Each structure stands twice: as C-alpha cells, then as structure tokens.
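Structural prep section.
Before we set up the soaks we want a predicted structure of the protein with zinc ion in place, mainly to decide which crystallisation condition to try first. Input record follows.
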Amino acid sequence: MTVRTVIEGCAIATVDAAGTECRDGHLVIEADRIVAVGEGPAPEAAGGVGGVRETEFRRIDGRGLLATPGLVNCHHHLYQWATRGLAQQATLFEWLVELYPVWALIDDETCAAAARAGLAALARSGCSASTDHHYVFPHDAGDLLEVEIGAAASIGLRFHPCRGSMDLGRSDGGLPPDEVVEDRDAILAASEAAIDRFHDPAPGAMVRIALAPCSPFSVTRGLMSDAAELARRRGVRLHTHLAETLDEEYFCQEHFGVRPVEYLDELGWLGEDVWLAHCVHLDDAEVARFGATRTGVAHCPSSNARLGAGIAPVAGLLGAGVAVGLGVDGGASNEGGALAAEMRAALQFARLVGGPQALTARQALARATIDGARCLGREDELGSLEVGKLADVALWRVNGLEGAGIEDPVAALVFGATQAAEVLLVGGRPIVEGGELRTADEAQVAAEIERESRRLAARAEARV
Ligand SMILES: [Zn+2]
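Run finished without errors. Recording the tokens verbatim:
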C-alpha cells in the first residue's frame, strides 16, 4: 500500500536554487518522494478526496512549524560516543595520543551502543542523512562496519559510512600506536569487500560506502594513492581529515616537504568526488584550488572550538564556489553531537572572523542541507524540498518558548535556540514525532551507552 503524507499550515524553507520560501504552505509526500510543495493548502486531490483505495493517508498539522530539508551530517566518528568527556584540555595530537589506546579496546558491542546513541542524537537534531568515518578496527572486534550499518537501519537514518583506515604506526613515524594500525593490503581488501556488501548505487539508496584513510599523520602515502585508485575504479567517494591543526601542517612539512593541501594535490586527492573534514588552516591559493577542483569541505565548528584548532575560512570557501557541508565530528570532540547546533556555530564563528555579514541564517541552513548533500554526492535526491526529491524533511517548532515572536522562522531556527526537531521524516517515514524518537527507546539507548562507556573505561583502566 502506498502511503501519502500531507503536511499543511507550516512555513517552508525549501533551500532550492531560487531560495523559495512559503509562509503558510504545504508538502505532499507519496511513498518516499515529494510530489507537491508550495504556498497555501495542499491541492485537493492530494488530500484523498476521491483517492485511490490502496493509498493510506497521513496528515501532519504544520501550524507553528517550519519545514526544512532534513539536515545532512558530513563528518562523524560514531564509536567515539563511548569516550566522551575525556582529555578535556588537550590539543588534537594530545587528545589522540590519550585516546588511541582506549579506542584500541572497542568491540562490536561498544560500537553498536555508540552508533545507536550518536545516530539518535542526530535524528533528534533534525538530521536525516549522515556519514560516519570509522577508522579503528582492532583484531577480533567483530565486523564494526556491519554493526554501525545495522544501527543506522534501526534508528532509520540514511547512512553513508566510510571504510576508514590507518597504516602508519608510531614505529614508522606516524602518530597512532602500532596496535591500532592495519596492514595496507588488508585495508584495501576490506574496503573492496565493504563496497561489494553494502554500497547501493541505486536511486533512493539508504546505504552508500565511501573510502577514508584517516589523516596525513596516520596513513602512508601508498595507502592514500591505492585508496583513491580503488574508490575511482568502484565509483565511490573519498574522504579524509585535512588541515585541521597547525601540528598537522608541521608534520606534513617535516615528512613530505609540503603543506597538507599540496600533499593531497600531489596524490590526486582533490576533486569533485572528494570531501575533506575541517580545512581550518588554508591559505588563499589553497581555497582557490578547492574551488577549481570542486573539492567539498565538511566544516565542524564545535569540534574545532572544543580542540582549539581554529576557525575554517568558510566565507572564502563559499566565495570560491566550494560546497561546505557541516559535521558534528566524533563525540569525543563534540559531546553534544547535535547537527542543528552546528548551523548556529557556523554562523557565529564566520561572524567572529568576518563580521555580521560573513554568513546569513539562510546560508547556514544551506550548508547543513544542500551543501551536505553535495559533499555526499546526493544533491540530485537530497538537500532541498522539491518535487521528485526524496522526502527527507525536518519540521521545527517555532511557536514555542524558544521561537515564539521571532517573525522570521529561519532566524528562529539558526539564531535561536530551536535545535530539536518536532518531526523528522526519512523517505517519508516518521523517525521523530512530537519531538520524540519513534524508532528506539531513548532511555534504553542511554542505558546501553552508559553501560558500554563504563565497560570500555574499566578495560582501559585494567590494562594500564
Ligand atoms: Zn574527525
């Protein structure tokens, strides 16, 4: 039976190319696609008058709500949800050195609980599609990629996990301890197996795989090249961390004799099939190079602030035509993990360096939606509310205590405190309703991550 969902009475920010908005509009969804969007009530036929018998109708009262595209999260490490609140005053390198030995002890149960908690937090904050960058694969830990894909299916989010990797251990001059790195051939075999098993190139896909060697200081030059070759041969996207801190810049100068962006450029790692996390420390020529190569950026303002890494040149990147999506980054450097909060952080940080015109509320919303979709290569299906696109929709209450009285609903969402979705639909399916997760019991998800965080901490303690 086809399900037809009719939403009426809401403000709508479609984030289409023309920036179309409605003050009192409608959305009609059939199965997993948007079939109508616009000002005023839904067309009469959409509401079921004389409707077909095999269609089930659902109505959502949109009064007091703002509809936006579901938000798209472009950078995460879900397993880190089990190691939140640690290394509180550390720089990135200090934080990594403290956490790598703990992460070496994760297993399938840790990752299942962490992924469910992290994805639940994303859903609550209006995120309908997320990537994940998983790069720690201890021996005998189970199939961690399968575990997180299962978690995403149980919460109901669209999921683009990256098969991450590290092969440059401390004994070879890298930052991570040897116990958390893998052999290059094993990584490439596991990456190809992940594509074979999980990657769905079809329209409307719920799961797509990307390949993501971790960072210049934890991956060999050889693996970077081989991963790019494999990704392009199999038609999947490439992701990694880049230019996050000055320590990384010094590392690249010392080990490769070039700056991080030059290093990636030499390796053929800039291009429209690549999106890169952070990109804080870029000079003007590098910003232009990102634009010329159509390389995407995942901006993670809360994580960058938490680690004191710096502020990415978002206004400059947008000026160069770069797709700048938003990412919450892993829970160990952003204990909140709420994507809607990153819109506000992005706006505020851009203004701290560039003044009050550096980024508007609508530009911040576009980063969290259509640019996120571009980073994941899904702009034809996600990131805006348009007829024919997938029905990934967030509805935000703007007439409650947080938003009431703010005339502009987009300002209520981005400037204001409205950061939990009232309703979240993924492919037309309700994931959040009435501000509550419908696909999992939040108290149970919280209890599971509390248990797993404690078990991991106890194992780490016992080993010291
Ligand atoms: Zn990261």
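Observations: The mean pLDDT is 96.
Flagged for discussion at group meeting.
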